[in-house]
Amino acid sequence: QAKELGKNRYSVYTPELLVDMVYEYRLEADLRKALENDEFVLHYQPQIQPQTGEIVGLEALIRWQHPSLGLLPPGKFIKLAEENGLITQIGKWVIYEACSQNKKWQDAGMAPIKVSVNLSTQQFLTKDLITFMKDTIERTALDPQYIVVEITEYMAMEYEYSLNVLKQLKAIGIGISIDDFGTGYSSLNYLKNFPIDYIKIDKSFVDEIMIDHNNAFIVKAIITLAHNLQMQVIAEGVETKEQLDFLINQQCDLIQGYFFSKPLPANEIEKKYLVQQK
Ligand code: C2E
Ligand code: MG
Ligand code: MG
Ligand code: MG
Q1: Which member of 20, 161, 181, 241 has the greatest number of CB atoms within 10 A?
Q2: Are 144 and 172 in contact (CB under 8 A)?
């Protein structure tokens, strides 16, 4: 039957496919206006030191308050933004917003914490990333030790270029985190030579810790390796007490996941997690 349909070229566009195409077309048009209409928001997810329960950091995660579709998660629009290049502008907004929010909290007397932002590959490869980071630090007056950038293993593939960018970020005083560790191109070579502060164990490994022995071994090995290289480990997607206990046993440094909290808007984070500095 598919073959028959294929004979009439125009009929390969089924009504469903057309609806998808129109939807995507509209979403893209909306995305172009989203920045100027101030429709993006950041939610923040706590990163907790499990022995003390102390909050050490927050990961900033973007959402789009779409005028008719409601609050959209990044899974619904980041890929589109990468395809049409809007991601660089959106990414700049994220960095500026996260830094200025963190500075506001500090100015309000909260105990200082680090805020991490996710960098897209395109953003990481843009020539003005370092200049933009410096400008943002100057404009927001945030101490760079409270900023962390999350990059993925794919960005390490441009070895010389990446090393150079990371060294410059490091020189500014910004922290560096490898996100979704273990799901991409993991190379011991870059791990050894890049100035990395944190490794984030991907949720897919954490999910299976209690089910699959191999995953438990992998998690143990990542933690040992990271510690030997003077890096800290953050486990992402921790949902259960069992996973938490296992990770504490393995000396995992920081925990991020629904077990402690979902990502929340800034005002809720402030109420629930931030503490006035003594
Ligand atoms: P990521 O950086 O690995 O962020 C972690 C994702 O896991 C977040 O999804 C978070 O809400 C979710 N998560 C955390 N703990 C749990 C848990 O215990 N259970 C479950 N089921 N999920 C958990 P989110 O916010 O939908 O973000 C998805 C991805 O979108 C992020 O993955 C990141 O790659 C990307 N992203 C988010 N914000 C930005 C941004 O500002 N810029 C760029 N370029 N990418 C972003
Ligand atoms: Mg991340
Ligand atoms: Mg991650
Ligand atoms: Mg992940």
Answers
A1: 181
A2: yes
Task: Confirm or reject: Cβ of 239 under 6 Å from ligand 1.
Answer: yes
ipTM above 0.95, yes or no: yes
Phi-psi region of 154 (alpha: psi -120 to 50; beta: other; left: phi over 0): alpha
pLDDT tens-place string over residues 121-175: 999 999 999 999 999 999 999 999 999 999 998 888 889 999 999 999 999 999 9
Nearest CA to ligand 1 atom 23: 237
H helical segments located in 126-174 = 129-140, 159-172
CB of 97 shorter than 6 A to ligand 1: no
Burial class (CB in 10 A: 0-12, 13-18, 19+), 170: middle
- Residue-wise pLDDT for 246-269, tens only, equals 999 999 999 999 999 999 999 999
User: CA–CA separation, 247 vs 128, rounded Å?
Assistant: 38
Residue in the block written with tokens 């007056």: 141
Task: Mark the residues whose beta carbon lies below 5 A from ion ligand 4.
Answer: 180
| Tokens 């566009």 sit on residue | 13
